[in-house]
Amino acid sequence: MPDGKHYDVLIIGAGLAGLALARQLLLYTDKRILLVDRRTEFPPAKQKVGEATVQLSAYYYARVLDLEEHLEQAHYLKYNLRFYWKTPGKTNDCYEHYSQSYIRKLSNINTYQLDRNKFEGEMLRVNLEKSNFEFGPGCTELKVSLAQTGGLHSFSFKVAGSEVSGTTRWVVDTSGRGRFLARQLGLATDGKIRHGAHFFWVDGLVDIEKLTKLSLQQIRTRPDRTALGHTPAWQATNHFCGEGLWFWTIPLHGKTSLGLVYDNRLIPRERIDTLEKLIQWVCEEFPLFARDLPYRRVIYHTALKDFAHDCVQTISPARWAIAGEAGRFTDPLYSPGGDLISLYNTFITDAIQTEDDVDLADKCRLYEQMMEAVYEAYVPTYAISYDALGDQEAFTLKYSWELAIYFSYYVFPFINDLFTDKRFLAIFINRFSQLGRINRSLQTFISDFFQWKKNKRIPPREVIHFDFTDIKPLADAEKTFYRVGVSVEEARQILDEQLSNLKEMARFMAAQICASVLGDVHVLTNRRFVEGLDITRLHFDPEAIRESYLAVANSAEEYAWTLDSHVLQRLIEGQCEVVDEAEELVEVAGD
Fold first, then answer.
1. Which of 526, 480, 479 is nearest to 507 (CA)?
2. SS3 state of residue 248
3. Any idea what DSSP says for residue 390?
4. Over 424-483, what HEC string results?
5. Closest CA to 401 of 513, 521, 266, 240
6. Mind listing the pLDDT tens digit for each residue in 222-255?
7. Is-above-0.70 flag for pTM?
8. Are strands 237-242 and 576-577 parallel, antiparallel or unpaired?
9. At a CB cut-off of 8 Å and minimum separation 6, what does 275 contact?
């Protein structure tokens, strides 16, 4: 590598975030880019985790980075996210014993199950085809001296025994958990989420529908195909759920990714601190896997005891930025890591193209505000209501709400290139802040409901299948994917429509919980009761809910929902009180 050279952008770290940022800059600018990494093997021999994409990140990789052909050829299309719960009274050693919540139809935006090693290898290959891109693998003793606003940054490092130095206009840290700039600048902070993870890969495809006693013909013609459809379930990101935990299966060509994510407070680490213990625990917790996992060859296994972290600042008008895990990371549930990379890289790319110092300072202020707001919006999902994974009804309320926000307030603006329009951001932040207050209130309400319910109710003994998009506000939010090429004013109108949609949805979720607690479907349609719910200050107190409803129970006025107010009833039919279930079990034992 030449010494003393000047670059427009120095990127530190050739992982997913760094390679994607380089690709974006090479496609949309003529900037001279130097990408460095301490590793020498690309892609690495060890498998990389973080395979599942969702609509925003998949659109970014396929359309913004123009890698759609590679994604279609080398990676599986993803069949949405599916969630499973054990059924009381069944052995749960067969796939068909599990209740499911899911989205049956494929998304209008293709999503993918990434083999990270293949994908990063392809991004490096196409980046190296560009004459304005240089790559420095095996980089050691990296030093970066950041200049004041307007000046040039200097750097030096060793590669192949020689020292290289130079200057750069921008420095972007995508070094992952090494967190090069965040540590150098004292910006690294702990996250608010205390979760751990174990993940491993096995040879071949773990086809969860074949974890059963049924024959191939019986699998094909099961009556529940009417609800589930024929797209292979293994093609989804499958989540087998319990209180504060989930176990995933993700298909890759020739192998399967598997992993457990868990609240550190609920599972002692020593219970699963080796691969053998982990597989044993999974087979005991979700017995269908005992049919398969003990007999598979494990390719690679690793773990993270505590993976969430935050960052005080991630972009500066002094022309430095931080993206990917080098900055902020929340939790792998719903695969938000790729989304954060997509958003951050898009902000950073726009900032790098901004030459005027005043304009850049204004953009950096807005982009930092956006980055922090998006991160904080995820926190209640993981830090408050993670326990709700343990119940199909509670989690369906939680996830359909979160997904409706994601579709309308994340994906819709992104596919319209609106997040780098300062006029739009002012509109967006105003409305997004309203959702933040409602979200925290509702997440706490759902968590408290779950904690009450797990001690009071036994879930139905029959398997239940539920499509999230049966809830109309979620289906309406998904339709925003079809609104492309809109003006800022049109986008404002769509956001307002969706804000109204989401407020009704939050009110419905709160009313549904109250109806479930009281065991009375009339709660859902009592206008005075429903209108009395303050969705920004919900408080879960069963006796207070009962008293509040009894005070207006005689009112004949019905609340005018625009959705089917009884859509979730099948999730609670067949539930019984814990005491009744215990008595029944005693009777069965006596027989």
1. 526
2. strand
3. G
4. HHHHHHHHHHHHHHHHHHHHHHHHHHHHHHHHHEECCCCCCEEEHHHCHHHHHHHHHHHC
5. 513
6. 999 999 999 999 999 999 999 999 999 999 999 9
7. yes
8. unpaired
9. 198, 200, 298, 301
